[in-house]
Structure formats: C-alpha cells, structure tokens
C-alpha cells in the first residue's frame, strides 16, 4: 500500500487533478483553453469558414455563423478518431480492462456514466489526445444532482424527485465501489492515473456526458446497414445549443476507402448572418431536459405528467365527474381482460400513464376509461384497440360516454394539481423576489408541470363543450 502511494506520488507530474482550476467566465475546466476550431482542423477535420464560437449566445457558449449559409452546406466534419467513445473491447491494457469492469457495474439506464468513466480517464491523463477538447468543457453543470436538497424538494414532482435521488444514491455507492476495486491497483495500471475518484468527480463526468453526448450509429453497424445506438462525445459539434426548430443536423457518412464514418453537421435550413447553429437534442419532456441537460423549456410541446392508473383514484375521479357508480374497482371479467391487453391489469402491469404532450391523454388511459365507463361488451367489440386509444376517433361509444371520459380526466387533473404545494402565481412571485439559479430552475420546472395539467384541462373542457353542443338536439 505504502509502495503504491509512493508510485502514485511519482506519477503526479503526469496527471491532471480532478479538482477545478479557477476559471474565467463562463467557467471551463482550464482558464484559457485551446482554440477548439483550430484543433479540429489540425486533426484533419473541416469547419466552415463562417462558423465561429460565441460566448454571447442565450445559452452559454454556442456556435454562430458570421455569414448567410444555404441549406445542405457542410458546416463541420469530424474525422473518425476525434469523437470520444467507450470502446468495450479495448481491454489490451490492465487499466482499460479495469475500466471495462467498472463500466459493467453501471446500470443500462445510466449510460452516461459508462462513457463518463472513459472521459474521466482522459481528464486524469496529462498526455490525453482529447485535452484540447476536455479543457473546453464546463466546470459545473446545472443538473439537479448538484442542487441543494431544498431545491430538489422544490421540484415538487415525485417521478423526477425519484430519478434525482436514484442518481445521487448511485453516485455515492459507485464512489465506494470504485475505491474498493482500485484500492490495491498499481499506479501504472490505475485507470484514473492513481487519482481518488469521489462522487463529485463522478457527478461531473456523468453530467458532462449527459449534457453533451449524442447517440449515433457505431462504425461496424453502419456498414451492415442496421442502426446502433452508440453514445459519443463530439468535440465542437457539442457547442451547438438546442432548438425544436433546428437549423442544422448531424449526419454520419462513410469515409471512402476505410470503413470508418465521418460525423458531420450540415445546414438543415438557410442560416442567416449571426444566427446561432442549433440542433434538436430530441423531442423530450422537461424531465429529461432538466435531469440530463440542466435546463427547462417553456411551453415544451413534449412535456407530460405521469399518473398512476389506480382503480380507487379512477373511481374517485369519475364520481367527481358525475358518474354515479363507476366500475374501476370492480371491472367485469371482460373489462379486466381488456385492461390486461392494455397492460393496465394482469401479472406485470405498467400502471404509469401520462397526460400532456402531443396526445393530451395517453392512448391506454383513454381506452381504459372508454371501456370501463361504457360497460357494454357488444359496443366495445365493434371497435379495435387503436380506435379506442385515439382521440381523433370521436366518441366511439356515444357522446355521453365521451363526456364522462373527458370529465373523469379533468377530475384526475384537479387531483394531480392539488398535489403541488404551491400555485403558479405563488411560484412566479417567488422568482420575482430573486432566488438562486438552482431554485429558479426548480420553480420554472414545476410551473411548466402545472401548466401541462392546466393545458390538458383546457383542451378537454373545449372538447366537452363541443360534444355537449352536439348532444343537445338528440336529447331534445
Ligand atoms: C451540448 S451543450 C451546448 C454548449 C453549451 N452551451 C456550452 O456552453 O458548452 C448543452 C448545454 O447547453 C445549454 N443549452 C443548450 N440549449 C439550450 C436551450 N435551448 N435552453 C437552455 N440551455 C441550453 C445547457 O446548459 C445544456 O446542458
């Protein structure tokens, strides 16, 4: 042990410590990092002459174009050796095989941690090929694992709180596991150049990856024509900020003679002078944007609210909606069978349903409500499950049934809103008073969640009104 400590000390000159240097604004790992564009060009990559890094974008550093560019123009091209990937079969050295062994202990859903181990290995290595890239990475991230406890609580939304706590717990446990695994490892075999890896360094690297990595085709799979899902860090390309209306996109192109692929950014639309270059990170809910990227999008059309399909809750909601004796707690055998087909009953049901997003009511929930509030097998048998799951299929079991369904969802929304301890107006007043950046993010997040519920209520109320106006002549 004493020997290995001495060996680690003698390695000190060849490592980069995980502690952070005092950095200029906006804070990057190195105070004056090398010019990324020059590095990419030196490595044989291409950067359009009008593409420049800008510190003055709305969202931190970004890329802008200094002149008008037409659609289809190549903006950036990275040679195959520049993206940073986790190569699982690269176990030629003890340190790589130790890294692979650690990576195998990372749960699949935390894929960012796996590539993060590789990034941390390179960050520790004073001779890293990727240092010009790594030194340009932000020193801190605004993802909730770094929020003070109070701001995590202030998110007010149980499914996200659960995810944040799960990630924090994992980081603390993984820190111990890495320490145990690397305790007696010789400095020369140590994957992190002998440095102690704590939860904060793990959090930094996981966040660097989750905020910046892109999931693309791997080289081998692209050749065979099938798709793969390989996370990669794409230097310079990852300086593009996000928009649902992007003006650029990433493509992969086979590199002539060898089987390697080039990763390119091309202009998707016309780019005007001084426009930022924007990519679409994905049609994601604010849960993913906050958890993985550390930001929240206002009026995000893909934001949703998760509810639990709970029979008692459904009964309570439909009674509140005026249904006299709802059958959610005691479905007929045929209804139970249909619920099983929707995976809302049976041995391993998935009881998580969503409202909001492109479809205001998730198809499975809509079908379940229609079926349970209908009660007539002969009626239900007339429709296939796709029709029952679709809001564009208007009132398959008649107007009264559809109104009861929508009113039940509205009542579910009221119940969901009542679980938030504060109202939107109160949240807005707190932000106005001035709060920390993390508190503001938490509050903005919960405002958006409540807005999703309110928007669904407005949408369904409009539909109820429309249906009621159709119902009147028949009833008369
Ligand atoms: C891939 S990096 C883009 C480069 C980054 N702006 C920087 O300074 O290094 C993604 C990060 O940029 C910021 N970002 C990108 N698009 C954003 C958006 N639409 N709204 C808010 N923040 C955004 C977030 O901090 C996010 O984690």
UniProtKB/TrEMBL annotation:
User: Which keywords appear in this protein's UniProt record, sorted alphabetically?
Assistant: Methyltransferase, S-adenosyl-L-methionine, Transferase
> Which Pfam families has this protein been placed in?
Rubis-subs-bind, SET
Matches recorded under SUPFAM superfamilies: RuBisCo LSMT C-terminal, substrate-binding domain (SSF81822), SET domain (SSF82199)
All residue ranges annotated as the SET domain in the record = 49-282
Q: Which GO terms describe its biological process?
A: methylation
InterPro entries registered for this protein in UniProt: Rubisco_LSMT_subst-bd, Rubisco_LSMT_subst-bd_sf, SET_dom, SET_dom_sf, SETD3_SETD6_MTase
Report the superkingdom from the record: Eukaryota
GO function terms (MF aspect): protein-lysine N-methyltransferase activity
PANTHER family (UniProt xref): F21J9.27, UNCHARACTERIZED PUTATIVE METHYLTRANSFERASE
Q: What is this protein called?
A: SET domain
Species assigned in the record: Arabidopsis thaliana x Arabidopsis arenosa
